[in-house]
Automatic annotation (TrEMBL):
UniProt superkingdom: Bacteria
InterPro entries: YlqD
Pfam families, sorted: YlqD (PF11068)
Protein name in the entry: YlqD protein
Organism in which the protein naturally occurs: Salimicrobium flavidum
Record key words, sorted: Coiled coil
Coiled coil residues, start to end: 40-74
């Protein structure tokens, strides 16, 4: 028998409490980190990825400036809500640019064979009564040169 009772997520950190009968198990969806081993090829690939993201963010900032000038030319001064929104969007893109630049700098500093997280994927995990919670939290996938090198399972 499975009973679900909802609680406020910010109060407890989980959206659902699951009450299980003794000896029962449950399959849940959990985010698993995917890590990459930093090799010379991977460093170059990550650098290219960051360069593309930087270029895209810079183009978006330019586009917002262009749109602002176009609207000002057409309507005179901009309504405050539109002006604030454009300013906010530009500010967000510039913050993202700073973050990407920082990541590029860190990429150059990191030693070869350092592992770093590139994404998280969702995985179905079986949770059993009496299971050590820490082992469930330690799952991760490690990739080297485009191939899964190992799957750490707690």
């Amino acid at each position: 028998m499975l009973t679900l009772c909802k609680k406020r997520e910010r109060d407890i950190g989980l959206s659902l409490f699951l009450h299980l009968k003794r000896g029962a198990s449950l399959k849940v969806i959990k985010k698993i980190p995917v890590k990459v081993v930093l090799t010379e090829n991977e460093r170059e690939a990550q650098n290219n990825r960051l360069d593309h993201q930087l270029e895209r963010m810079e183009r978006e900032v330019e586009q917002f400036h262009f749109e602002r000038k176009k609207m000002e030319k057409k309507h005179g001064s901009l309504p405050s809500n539109i002006d604030e929104r454009l300013t906010q969007e530009v500010r967000q893109r510039k913050a993202k640019i700073q973050t990407l630049q920082y990541h590029k700098e860190q990429l150059e500093i990191l030693p070869d064979f350092h592992e770093f997280t590139i994404e998280e994927i969702e995985s179905v995990v079986e949770v059993k009564e009496g299971m050590e919670w820490k082992k469930l939290q330690e799952k991760e996938i490690v990739i080297e040169n485009g191939f899964v090198k190992r799957v750490r399972d707690g």
